[in-house]
């Protein structure tokens, strides 16, 4: 119950409390500094006043016979300054070498230069309850001593330094605490950002309902939206997958009937159309399978995966070469990556006549470039062709089929591993598909 009262539930209240704490500390520090400045100023005035009274006392006592000096010293005393006279030193000692006493001595001598040659000795009050008391002696011209005892004397600069240190310590605590508090306030927001990014990649992540009231409401809304999107996508995927799967049955019947045709040219054309239809159905099913693929991630030698695809292409007479290290292991789903790189290599061969696969590795990432010598893609279309069912045949080969899912399947598989796929036109002509994968 106490925690709910002290710590606001809303983000606005928490930020307000943080700002008010900072402002309060600022006012506190300003008040302390103002008070210290006044005390330092008062200390200077008191030191000047003490120097004047010591100079007056020294001249007054020097002008009367020794027998009258004790009474005169008593008469010159006040509530905060007691003067006394003795024929020899009363034992004030050699003085205490403290910074404050040295500062006081310098201010006294600055006020009255005549005090510098009179053997001025200063000593602190001996009692623990006398922090503002100073005792001292001043030698007169005949060798006798003028003693003085000052009370309620402001400490001045040393007190100022100590208080400044205390204020700096408070400010340092705030500087340390403020980022921690802001980080704590921003933690739920960072979680929401990660969840939103995961949703955009097709990997919904339940968001913990915690933090300020506004963040909790947003988390509940985001979780509800994820559920609705998941149901919607599942329904659409199931319907499209069912249609694509059911199409295979009539395609199979049509293929059997074309085998009975006696007109061979017509039979060949119909067989080609059926092959294209079956390829489209297979591409749609592969794309819809996507993130629903139960394949678990495991350690994969990416070099072995790429060289297998390159060798398979070379075995059927395609111009495909690999360049890179002999071994590169990462944690990923091998079948998904194999499907992605197979699509990229097939596209490069189909549209550019050849493919060059280059692998570069560092401590955190692996970069794979699949390049061809084809006509490339208009710059304005580079992003669009990565989307499902998008094809730009006019700018590349007219002899290719497909439904425009090859690159979309590759993007889906790469992003599932936390990577990125981008298309770049080469300066000398051709296209490069750059894939970046984290080692994890």
TrEMBL record:
EC number: 2.7.13.3
A GO cellular component annotation in the UniProt record: plasma membrane
Primary localisation category: membrane
Chain ranges of the HAMP domain: 183-234
Transmembrane feature ranges: 160-182
Any GO molecular function: phosphorelay sensor kinase activity
Classification via InterPro entries: 2C_sensor_his_kinase, HAMP_dom, HATPase_C_sf, HATPase_dom, His_kinase_dom, HisK_dim/P_dom, HisK_dim/P_sf, Sig_transdc_His_kin-like_C
Keywords: ATP-binding, Cell membrane, Kinase, Membrane, Nucleotide-binding, Phosphoprotein, Transferase, Transmembrane, Transmembrane helix
Catalytic activity reported: ATP + protein L-histidine = ADP + protein N-phospho-L-histidine
Subcellular location: Cell membrane
Recorded topology in the membrane: Multi-pass membrane protein
Gene3D superfamilies on file: 1.10.287.130, Histidine kinase-like ATPase, C-terminal domain
Limits of the Histidine kinase domain: 242-440
SUPFAM superfamilies associated with the record: ATPase domain of HSP90 chaperone/DNA topoisomerase II/histidine kinase, Homodimeric domain of signal transducing histidine kinase
Uppermost EC category: transferase
PANTHER family: SENSOR PROTEIN CREC (PTHR44936), SENSOR PROTEIN RSTB (PTHR44936:SF10)
Stated name of the protein: histidine kinase
